[in-house]
Design goal:
- This protein has about 500 residues and is an alpha/beta fold.
- Helix 6 links the parallel strand 10 and strand 11.
- The longest helix is centred in the N-terminal third of the chain and has 22 residues.
- The termini are far apart.
- InterPro entries: Ald_DH/histidinol_DH, Ald_DH_C, Ald_DH_CS_CYS, Ald_DH_CS_GLU, Ald_DH_N, Aldehyde_DH_dom.
């Protein structure tokens, strides 16, 4: 039985057993060398779910040593791509057998909607894994046309040991967004999940071993950024770091990579994405998309369309309708199928969002709806909408990572483009219009890695994803992602007595 809303009881659902709380190193679950543990908490109540083994430098060193040995001498990079693909497909099969349990782990650890996890999050992670499983035997170089009596070709070789650091907002999808292409390429991996949400990552580690991924090829070290994360990014035996998180930590990681062994780095660092709605857009569709773009997943999503630009001809009507929608969103227990929005991930994030709501009021924005905590316990916040937002306000410039919408009126296409680009970020953008010429012009003018036209949150394993400007560099998804984990080698040999060159 689980709590429903913020206090009542929903029959017929049992919370998952917490089976895995240790570090996963070289194919085994082990305690931290120091014996230290930390608490992971349920954001619905603030109560402790479990005590988790806390890795520090000693443990990270052991995990990297295992990964290095598995890469330098183990079978994983020496298998054919076909064989790696078969094992990764088996891995996906095993995850499919545990969809409900994994969705429940992300629900209690991150406050994510259980129904959405079962229908979208975990199946999406499985599709990501299968995409790269199928790509594992399609990695190849090129034949080169050289000047002179030589023949040349390129090899694409796995880069080595990959360090993966993932955030807490999509624990399962982020795990496979990074791990799948790295494993498919033949790399070995050390994952540091977010300290707020380690539970599903540890479950995935167990299933990886069961699927036949060799010991040392996939390791999971729970812990904190300044200790476990820093040990991973600065290690001389790590060849690549793939990170999703904040620009501030991304900058620290780049410095760490530069001052250690010049390891390659890919960064996805969040955004402050504009949703641009023109007068000719379908109004009801625009209201629905704009609401979902910022309130979905309680605003804890890097591409949240939190800056909503509405052309003046439909602005007033849009405002009326979007307030109605926000007031209709049900906030409560993520295991209740009637709920639209669960709690913020933890107390720190909850207080951060409330602080930014106060910034909005202080700086002169008009609070139209929401803006308050809700429920007697847990980290719940009402869907919040501000109007009269100026570009220099903190709520317009900073990534809040919460259910806070900033409404801004505009007149011309030129103004919309200029305002949309008035941010240090460049991760995504939405354009709503029925005019193909407007759509083409604006999509080419907005500096963002993904632009959605008359839709939003459309992700696919085949569509490269990443940012411009301070949203980072490098791409996840698509075949572009697998290239991050490969190195190109040119091989040149002389040819003798050839009838042609």
């Amino acid at each position: 039985m689980a709590e429903n809303g913020n206090g009542s009881v929903k029959e017929g659902f049992e919370m998952p057993e917490i089976k895995y709380t240790k570090l996963f190193i070289n194919g085994e679950f082990v305690d931290a060398a120091s014996g230290k543990e930390f608490e992971t908490r349920d954001p619905r109540t603030g109560d402790v779910i479990a005590n988790i083994a806390e890795a520090d430098k000693v443990d990270v060193d052991l995990a990297i040593k295992a990964a290095r040995e598995a890469f330098d001498h183990g079978p994983w990079p020496r298998m054919s791509g076909y064989e790696r693909g078969r094992i990764l497909h088996k891995y996906a099969d095993l995850i499919e057998q545990h969809i409900e349990e994994l969705a429940a782990l992300d629900g209690i650890d991150a406050g994510k909607l259980f129904a959405f996890g079962k229908a979208v999050d975990i199946p999406g992670a499985i599709r990501m894994l299968r995409y790269y499983a199928s790509a594992a035997d399609k990695i190849h170089g090129e034949t080169l046309k050289l000047n002179g009596a030589y023949q040349g070709y390129t090899l694409k070789e796995p880069i080595g040991v990959v360090g993966v650091i993932i955030p807490w907002n999509f624990p399962s999808m982020m795990f496979f967004l990074k791990v799948s292409p790295a494993l498919a390429a033949g790399c070995t991996v050390v994952v540091k999940p977010a300290e707020q949400t380690p539970l599903s990552a540890l479950f995935y580690a167990k299933l990886a071993k069961e699927a036949g991924i060799p010991d040392g090829a996939l390791n999971v070290v729970n812990g904190f950024g300044p200790t476990a994360g820093a040990a991973l990014t600065s290690h001389m035996d790590v060849d690549n770091i793939s990170f999703t998180g904040s620009p501030e930590i991304g900058s620290v990681i780049m410095q760490s990579a530069a001052t250690s062994n010049l390891k390659t780095v890919s960064l996805e660092l969040g955004g402050k994405s504009p949703m641009i709605i023109f007068d000719d857009a379908n109004l009801d569709m625009a209201v629905g998309l704009a609401s979902a773009a910022v309130f979905f997943n309680k605003g804890e999503i890097c591409v949240a369309g939190s800056r909503v630009y509405v052309q003046e001809g439909i602005y007033d009507e849009f405002v009326k309708k979007v307030i109605e929608v926000a007031k209709g969103w049900v906030v409560g227990d993520p295991f209740d199928p009637k709920v639209n929005m669960g709690p913020q991930v933890d107390k720190v994030q909850y207080e951060r969002v409330l602080k930014y709501i106060e910034y909005g009021k202080r700086d002169g924005a008009t609070l139209l709806t929401g803006g308050k905590p809700c429920g007697e316990k847990g980290y719940y916040i009402e869907p919040t909408i501000f109007a009269d937002v100026k570009e220099d306000m903190k709520i317009a410039q900073d990534e809040i990572f919460g259910p806070v919408m900033s409404l801004i009126k505009f007149k011309t296409i030129e103004e919309a483009i200029e305002r949309a680009n008035c941010t240090k970020y460049g991760l995504a953008a939405g354009i709503l219009t029925n005019d193909i010429n407007i759509a083409n012009r604006v999509s080419r003018s907005v500096r963002a890695g993904t632009v959605w036209i008359n839709c939003y949150f459309v992700f696919d394993a085949d569509a490269p994803f990443g940012g411009f400007k301070m949203s980072g560099f490098g791409r996840d998804q698509g075949m572009n992602a697998i290239e991050k984990y490969l190195q190109v080698k040119s091989v040149i040999t002389p040819i003798y007595n050839s009838p042609w060159l």
